[in-house]
Amino acid sequence: MIHEALKRLEYRGYDSVGQATVIGGRLNLKKDKGRIEEVHANINLDDMDGSLGIGHTRWATHGVPSNVNAHPHTDCKEQIAIVHNGIIENFSQLRQKLEEKGHKFKSRTDSEIVAHLIEDHVKAGEKFHEAVRLSVKQLEGSYAIAAVTSLNPDEIVCARRESPLVISSREDASFCASDTTAILPLAKTAIALGEGEMAILKPGSVDVFRVEDGERVVKEPFEITWSYEAAQKGGYPHFMLKEIHEQPQAVRDALRTQQIYHDLIATNLVKAQKIFLVACGTSYHACLAASYAFARLAKIICQVVVASEFCEQFKEIIDSNTVVVGVSQSGETSDTLNALREAKKKGATIMSVTNVMGSTVTTLSDVYIGQNSGPEIGVAATKTFTAQVAVLMKLAITLALRKRAITNDAATNLREQLEKLPDMMGKTIDKTEGLIKSISLRHHRKQSFCFLGRGMSFATAMEGRLKLLELAYTPCLAYPAAESKHGFIAVVDSGYPVVFIAPQDENRRKIVGNVMEMKAREASVISVAEDGDVEMETLADEFVPVPTGVPGLFSPLTYVIPLQFLAYYVATLNGHDVDHPRNLAKSVTVE
Fold this sequence. Notes:
5-stranded parallel β-sheet; 21% strand; alpha/beta; Rossmann fold; Glutamine Phosphoribosylpyrophosphate, subunit 1, domain 1
């Protein structure tokens, strides 16, 4: 039953798998790295006795895919097993305290500390469910946790914050899962565990409590009416749309990357004489945004290079005083890997940002940061872009502080502003989706589009253009707005759609002039600008308001969202499969 449920969840993560059952007063544990059926062929996940168990399929955020890093994780005595989704921010501090008490850890994951925390509270005399409650109260970050113990073989205790968890019960059994997909054939109704809630599951019964004080909570079940395919997509018609909506949480998790790795990369960048940011496609645009932040905050010049051109252009000047930062969602992009290998041969220090722990890019790197955005099924990258921008902005702040280009107070203020961005992104999604759908209805038959922005917004314009090109197959242009006078303006005529990215930053007055130039040629101006920007709203034919208060430096995180929606709705209105655009692959592993 667990094996089949995990197969239905494999789109959520697939670098390792494991199961634990309780039988005869002991835990039975099987796990290994690899996809589910690969692991099953080696260790037979179906040959596990017991009437109670938990399972997990993993997407690594801490620790490369391996047997010991696979879930479930156990305590010292192997009497308690847990599975965990999410990122525990304070795991290093908790682990140190537990090790001082004599706990022995097997893995490099943040998740394993949960089993040891529970063990600690059980040892102190707490009942199992209370030990779980007290343990998760100590956690900072996001989590969906399910725990079992051989000492109490008739219950599962689960809890959540930020990461989803659904629960279902029927007359003879109870289930919990990170996604309704897992329990579709097993139950007709379910409850969604709320933020900061926990539950005790027994055969045929579920009790829900608040983590904070242990008070009982009454939950109303909902009917499960989704098909298997719809459930995989969370009820959205496409994975891409689901992933656009996942971006606030993806950025929260991206900002939870361990500060020590940012510090290590910043230390190397400060010492370097030459710095290159190397990437392809969407990751290149994230690097472009980072280059503005590095220059403005840290007063550091770095060269942003399309990976396929790096060796041809720069290999003769790479040496031991060079740092090359490779950015790749998959960690397997061929052109990026070739650039890093060539730089490594020349003695350069290699850094990277990637979404896949254990990928080739991590093995080439002296230091790497995981962007923590989870699996992205849609070929067109959405949460990849915003997660990478978030990580690189956090790095820019660290770098500026290390160079003493900003004060401690300024760095604290910037970090606080960055931490607010996921909420602002959620508001942007709510505020702009319906409006962009309407705009798309009016423009989806247009033969071409152009995206214009200044400064940091040029990176946003480039990413918006790429999304529409990839998904709608519509010829698109993107320029720094002032450059539109050098060539592009010649093709502007009545009704030509020009999309302006126009936040309230230092370029505000100049971008107004560029809008007026396009209006003078009867272009159809679509402005993505701050809510309440009366001047821009008056000038534009279509006005897309983004929530106020987003610093210009961090504007790509919110301003790209309407552009993602534009690509999505133009493409779907034209009848294209946005999850599988023609001629494209998720990971480009050929030159």
